[in-house]
Amino acid sequence: MLCALKRKPLVLGFFAALALLPPQGVFAADCQSPAPCPPRGEPLKNAKTALVEFDTSPFPFDGMVPEKDIPFLDITTGARKGHRTPRGRILWEDATFRDSRVLLHIPKGFDVARPGVMIVFFHGHGATLRRDVRDRQLVPAQVSAAGINAVLVAPQFAFNASDSSAGKFWEAGGFGRFITEAGTKLTELHGNPASAASFSTMPVIIVAYSGGYLATAWCLELGGVDGRLSGVVLLDALYGELDKFTTWIANNKSKFFVSSFTDSTQSKNIALKTMLAEHEIPATNGLVQTKWRNGVTFLATDPEIKHDDFVTQAWVEYPITDILRRLDDYRRK
Fold first, then answer.
1. pTM of this prediction exceeds 0.85
2. How far apart are CA 125 and CA 23, in angstroms?
3. What is the pLDDT of residues 49-83, one digit of tens each?
4. Same domain, 91 and 235
C-alpha cells in the first residue's frame, strides 16, 4: 500500500481544489456574466472550466494511418463510415470519432502576468471528457490542487471506445496547430485579450494515460512543438512506440521524461530503459529534488495499484498533482 505520509499533503490540497470546480454536469465560461473580466496581472478569483469545440482536435479525421498507408475510415456501409481496429472491431465515425471538443480548465488564482505552463492530458480507452477525465479521474481538480500557474487542455480522442488512434495528431505539425488553437481558446475562456501573449507562448507538458501513449509518440515525432515542449509524463501508458520515445529523449536531454507503471506496462518500461542504456542515456528510479526535470525517470508502483485507477492512485494518490507541485518555476506566490 502507499505510504500514508505521502498521501496526506496531497489529499488536503486536492479536496480544497475539488471544491473550486463547477458541480457535476456543469461547464461554465464565467466571462459571459456581466461582471468585468480580470485585467492582465490580476489572478482569477474563480476557476473556469469549459468544453470547447476545436478545429484542430484529433477528430473528426478522414486521413491516412501513417506507417500502414491505409485510410483511417476504411469501412463504408451506405452513408456510414467506420474504422476497423487492429482486433477487427468496427468503430463508426458518427458514434466514436466525431467529438471535436476539448476540456479547458484555468484554476482559481491563475495569473497571466506570471510564468505559466500548459498541461495537455491524453486520456485512455473507454473515456469521455465529462464522465471520466473531469468527474472520475479528477484531472482539473488535480491541476488546481498543485498550486502552480498551470492550465489544462484535454482533447477528446475515441469517444467511449477501446481505441488509441491519434487522428489529426498523426499529421505533420498537427499537434502544433492544436496547441496554437488552444492558446486562442484559453484566451477566450480567460476573458481578457491581453492574456493571449501568455497562452500563445507558455511551455507545454504532455501527461498521457494508458492508450494515450500512441498520440503522445506521434506528437513527439511530428508535432512541431519541440521548442515549447518541456516534458512528458506517462501514467501506465508505455504500450509501444519505443523507438519514437527513445529518439525524442536522445534529442531532448535538457527536458524530462517520466514513466510510471504497473505490471501492465512493466516489460515495455524495462525494454525502454535498456534501449536508453544502449544510447548511454542514464535513468533514475525516483523523483529526486529537481534533477528529474532534465532526464529520465522510471517509477514502479505497488503491486496492489490497479491500472484502471492509475490517474488517481499511482506512486502517490493524485499523481498529476504530485508531478506539478515539483515544478517550482511555476509556483504561485
1. yes
2. 25
3. 999 999 999 999 999 999 888 999 999 999 999 99
4. no
